[in-house]
Amino acid sequence: MLIDTHVHLNADQYEEDVHEVINRALEAGVEKMVVVGFDRPTIRRALELAEAYPFIYLVIGWHPVDAVDCTEEDLRWIEEIAAGHPRVVGIGETGLDYHWDKSPKDVQQELFRKQIALAKKLNLPIIIHNREATGDVVRILKEENAAETGGIMHCFSGSSETAKECVEMNFMISLGGPVTFKNARQPKDVAKEIPLNHLLVETDAPYLAPHPYRGKRNEPSYVRLVAEEIARLKELPYEEVARKTTENAMKLFRISE
């Protein structure tokens, strides 16, 4: 059994065949999937998927790239859904993205702090998006005492030193397709150095497909390839990595059998 802890089945790329994609995941042993909604349209679609499939769980929030579009009304709407829906298991993805310039840094940081506060209010883990903003992400997590709820460093791409710092703040390190890339030194180092009880697996599908599907549309069935690569790097049986990362996810998200 595997849990894909971060997947965008609500993306337009699956509009024509989402049911077939989900069935392939089930056949590959992916028994639970956490669908992430990060604005009003993707949250609505995530809710529809959760209604259709009892093994789909939700993380909802507002993406930092679009922080400039987020209103107080949007945040209240997210809070109402997260507080009332039994399968909302986290807040996010939130964080900082300095690669794109749509939303100013100060606007992103303010929204990041508000979503950390919301996660603490609802006692839900926080799912962190970080692109080219590691210093500010770590600083804000510390300033806002995000360790109180903890969460996930989603699709982690930083150094093993930063990963260890995040683990100390009560965050899990989630690895995706890049750990399978031949020259992806940092994710491979993280997989080797971070203890298995602090690791999760994800796809971030439809993005970042693992080898040998790199450059193609990703899907949750491929999360097995991520777990297999972690097992290879750690010199552990695949079954142990699958079991432990699943246990980690179930504990963090408070999902029962």
Describe this structure in words.
The protein is an alpha/beta fold and 257 residues long. It has one domain (2-253): Metal-dependent hydrolases (TIM Barrel, Alpha-Beta Barrel), CATH 3.20.20.140. 43% of the residues lie in helices and 18% in strands. It is built from 9 helices and 8 strands. An 8-stranded parallel β-sheet has the order 1-2-3-4-5-6-7-8, sandwiched between helices. Helix 7 (185-193) links the parallel strand 7 (171-175) and strand 8 (199-201). It is globular and about 45 Å long. 49% of the residues are buried.
Provide the β-strand percentage band.
15-25%
| The top level CATH class name | Alpha Beta
Total individual domains: 1
What summary fits the major beta sheet? 8 strands, parallel
Q: If you average the pLDDT, what whole number results? A: 97
Secondary-structure element order, as H and E?
EHEHEHEHEHEHEHEHH
Q: How far apart are the first and last residues' alpha carbons, in Å?
A: 12 Å
Shape: globular
> How many strands appear in the DSSP assignment?
8
Number of helices: 9
Q: Any low-confidence stretches, pLDDT <50, length ≥5?
A: none
For this structure, the CATH topology is: TIM Barrel
Please name the fourth-level CATH homologous superfamily.
Metal-dependent hydrolases
Binding site for a divalent metal cation 2: 129, 154
Keywords: Hydrolase, Metal-binding
GO molecular function: DNA nuclease activity; hydrolase activity, acting on ester bonds; metal ion binding
Binding site for a divalent metal cation 1: 6, 8, 93, 204
